[in-house]
């Protein structure tokens, strides 16, 4: 386990409790990046509060890494400014910014040993006695014994820790992490996620983490910005993004959503009644991000784990006031903690339902007639003028992009 | 059957030894004949053992002068070709510019061109320019034909270099000069060293191009060629053997250093 304490280095003030002058917020104002006719990042405003663990989440090519590199100074923005606290750093070269990066492939210097890799930043800033600081830092990442080894002699996980140590020893105002866990196997990745999260909590430095892995982003970050085609689709806490997605991309990219096309029927106070496939569904007004004119279309969404499954014979026992849809079980797969069903229903041929394996009803097998029902409070409404498939991931884990995004990317 | 099995097991070793012998036999002859005491002017027949030539390597007129000239030219040509070649290699790998593709292929022309043709053309060029043949024309010619080799060696190394390493250096407070000195150069060093060694060897023993463009200046290969017409002094073998030994020493030193490094890493 890694424990890190903040250390003072002579030139960079540390930011333990946010008492630094002017704060250490990262502010991007109207920042964009274009390469010829291709726009990698659309004009973007973003504030990362000091001391937070912030994740930029999106599929490859969505502009998240470009955004990170503009903060680091490795990419020059086509427009807009980057500020750290009160300081405008837009025109500063990377070596003058109080920012350090953990690169995707670690980018450890192959000709230097571990000690010199970690000492690199301190030495460049003219600090003579680095021995104690580097030794402490290496002990903290449990690599004290390996100090005189070359990077290629270490395992992937160890190299990753060297990369973190090499950046963190400089006590930067912001630590940028560019898919730092991408090269590790699943188990190690889970372990490093928790360790990085704890390091961040302990040192209190702002972390900006770029990843395409939604689970990783949700596990580690306080705030997640979901990016798609050079834009921030939605920004919020992991729970907020998951429960209240505001676009089909977010609904599909973070976890799985069932999306149904429905027509606005009536509006009673803070509830909207919708018609879908002959049935009626209720949607709280507060959870609808789309314009709702009577007769207009909206996309109704609900997460698979919010839905209960009841055999059609017992449909009468379902409490009133719940949203209902009837269908036939097309497929079921038992995966231990839950059973995942695919339901063929008139409103959607592949309605997904995850049921906890508490009391398994033996009649719920493929071919059985069922009623799906859920609390209307778990329903969300989206603008119907978007692709239903935006941000979906097929079973092989390959991201498929909806037609709109395909054209933009 | 037994001898066949014996042969089959050792076939690779035998083939290896034979090849090694084929490679080294000429060197052995050079070394052995450096201890000869020939009767006439020609050192082609073994007479009797003597160390006369070893104790007096400069005993032949002009030999050591030509050797020193060759070493000087080789040193300067190596320096010039390595510096220019390294810069060309970096430019070709790192930057996209107009005619990059053309430069990339043109740089190999001196390697492909028959040496004797190039030598003659160079002489024409120098004569037309009214240049005085000698040290400088030789040096210019040597830098020119060594360049391609240096570019090839360095380019291979630079191409395999991760550009993120330099970005990481910049990210860790190293300015452009520091980044180059602390990261780029050390990582490219093996390629640059290989190019430099190649350039030195090529320059030192070049005969054809040098002979055309030397005027009245005499380099070591030209001296050997010239004396071969009139008789070959044993000292030539002494110099040859000494060069061979120096090269072997370099290789051995390199091996010892890398062995020691590996052992350190293992511990």
TrEMBL record, chain A:
Top enzyme category: translocase
Gene3D superfamilies, alphabetized: 2.40.50.100, P-loop containing nucleotide triphosphate hydrolases
Which residue intervals are annotated with compositional bias (Low complexity) in the record?
1-19
Q: Which GO terms describe its molecular function?
A: ABC-type putrescine transporter activity; ATP binding; ATP hydrolysis activity
Self-association and partners: The complex is composed of two ATP-binding proteins (PotA), two transmembrane proteins (PotB and PotC) and a solute-binding protein (PotD).
| Protein family per UniProt | Belongs to the ABC transporter superfamily. Spermidine/putrescine importer (TC 3.A.1.11.1) family.
Q: What does this protein do?
A: Part of the ABC transporter complex PotABCD involved in spermidine/putrescine import. Responsible for energy coupling to the transport system.
Q: What protein name does the entry list?
A: Spermidine/putrescine import ATP-binding protein PotA
- What is the source species? Streptomyces aurantiacus
Recorded name of the encoding gene? potA
TrEMBL record, chain B:
**Protein location:** Cell membrane
Q: What membrane topology was assigned to this protein in its record?
A: Multi-pass membrane protein
Q: Where are the transmembrane segments?
A: 12-35, 73-93, 105-127, 133-154, 183-204, 234-257
Key word Cell membrane present:
yes
Signal peptide (residue range): none
Q: Which PANTHER family match?
A: PUTRESCINE TRANSPORT SYSTEM PERMEASE PROTEIN POTI (PTHR43848:SF2)
Per the database record, which ranges form the ABC transmembrane type-1 domain?
A: 67-257
Similarity comment: family membership? Belongs to the binding-protein-dependent transport system permease family. CysTW subfamily.
Protein name from the UniProt record: ABC transporter permease
Spell out the GO cellular component terms annotated for this protein, sorted alphabetically and separated by semicolons.
plasma membrane
UniProt keyword Ribonucleoprotein, yes or no: no
Example GO biological process term? transmembrane transport
Question: Where mainly located?
Answer: membrane
* Keywords annotated in UniProt: Cell membrane, Membrane, Transmembrane, Transmembrane helix, Transport
Report the source organism: Streptomyces aurantiacus
UniProt-listed Pfam families: BPD_transp_1
